[in-house]
Write a structure and sequence with these properties.
By secondary structure, the protein is of the alpha/beta class. It is built from 15 helices and ten strands.
């Protein structure tokens, strides 16, 4: 459940941390009101939870192994999804991993109802969705091998963000992995500028569909008239590339038309995790975790930064990142500074690499090239070619 089209000054919200730790009833009325508004927006216009490869527990386990953890086997583990929407991401994993247990919480009863219907129709017994606030979760809720918080951290008040970090610490097993995605600077400044342009163009427009259509209208206008070298263009084209999505209306309403999103610098996010006994493990997506698309001079500079966490901040500056998918683990774990690629020999590997149109002989011993997303792999091995 993400933050919706609300105009709320989070800076005025305060919370007695001692009261909130023992009971959500200690929340200030203003915070409760924010949560109620967010819930109402998602009940009005649900936002489906789509399966996401980068937060699949199989992927999280692999990343943990590469950096020195011994994560739980995905065939026998417990997974918690915070703000799970209709549970689509959990349900997809539960259907392929019947020996594991999956738990999702959300405050949108409409979204949860859709997910529960799907669970019933599929006959799944290993996934449970509950109407529950993130603020209600304590140590009595149980321990989990993997905790996932997608599309929530940057769209909720500070107090809820702190609770998410607390859950990722207190409810995570020793070698557990927590996944949190969130908006970051410096790219977040461009997102904020585009959002303000859309909101200005909307004016007094009412109605969800009408607002989404008018927002797309101004983005397409900018795309048609903006200079090729304009710094907004890459992000603008990224947003417009989603035009074919069936949930476009919800996407625009909840993610791009909200008037209050709270990006942060990755260094600040990591520093906030430390008091909760958490540390930075790595980024969830290898293409982000290993910045191979930087120029050689930039990579040399980054390699001189021995502190892995500091390196992340300089990568964001160089790549102008607007979002992150960060994996956290317990601070006391001994981690590798770089991924141990020797462990890849123990993995099964799949990819979207495609061969060229040229016909070739698998057993010729000639080198062939396979490509995906602008990256290339070359091999002479007949088994790999096949």
């Amino acid at each position: 459940m993400r933050h919706s089209n609300l105009s709320i000054d989070y800076n005025t919200l305060t919370l007695n941390s001692e009261q909130s730790e023992s009971s959500p009833s200690g929340l200030e009325n203003a915070v409760v009101e924010v949560i109620q508004q967010i819930t109402s927006a998602y009940n009005e216009l649900p936002y489906a939870s789509m399966p996401e490869p980068s937060s699949h527990i199989d992927h999280l386990a692999v990343m943990g192994w590469l950096y020195g953890l011994t994560p739980a086997r995905i065939e026998e583990c417990r997974v918690l999804d915070l703000a799970c929407s209709d549970g689509g991401h959990l349900i997809a994993m539960a259907s392929e991993l019947p020996g594991s247990e999956f738990f999702g919480i959300d405050l949108s009863e409409n979204e949860l109802a859709a997910g529960k219907d799907l669970i019933h129709n599929l006959g799944l017994k290993n996934v449970n969705l509950e109407t529950r606030s993130i603020l209600d979760i304590d140590e009595n809720f149980g321990q989990f091998d993997y905790i996932i918080a997608r599309g929530v951290f940057s769209w909720v008040p500070f107090e809820v963000q702190e609770k998410i970090l607390s859950i990722c610490s207190r409810n995570l097993v020793t070698d557990g992995i927590a996944y949190i995605n969130y908006a970051v600077y410096p790219g977040g400044h461009i997102d904020d500028a585009l959002r303000r342009i859309m909101l200005y163009h909307l004016g007094e427009t009412r109605g969800t569909k009408e607002r989404a259509e008018k927002a797309r209208e101004i983005l397409e206008f900018l795309s048609d008239t903006m200079a090729t070298e304009h710094p907004f263009r890459p992000r603008l084209e990224g947003i417009l590339s989603m035009r074919g999505r069936p949930d476009l209306e919800s996407l625009f309403y909840h993610e791009y038309l909200n008037s209050k999103t709270e990006p942060s610098y990755v260094s600040d996010f990591i520093n906030r995790a430390h008091p909760h006994g958490l540390t930075f493990l790595c980024e969830a997506t290898p293409r982000t975790a290993w910045a191979g698309n930087l120029i050689e001079k930039s990579e040399r500079m980054l390699r001189r930064i021995k502190n892995k966490e500091s390196r992340q901040q300089y990568e964001d500056f160089l790549l102008n990142r607007s979002s992150r998918q960060t994996l956290l683990c317990h601070k006391e774990r001994t981690l590798k500074h770089e991924p141990d690629f020797a462990k890849v020999r123990d993995f099964y590997v799949s990819s979207s690499l495609a061969k060229g149109t040229r016909q070739f002989d698998l057993f010729s011993g000639d080198q062939e090239t396979y490509s995906a997303n602008g990256r290339h792999v070359m091999t002479k091995d007949s088994l790999v070619k096949e």
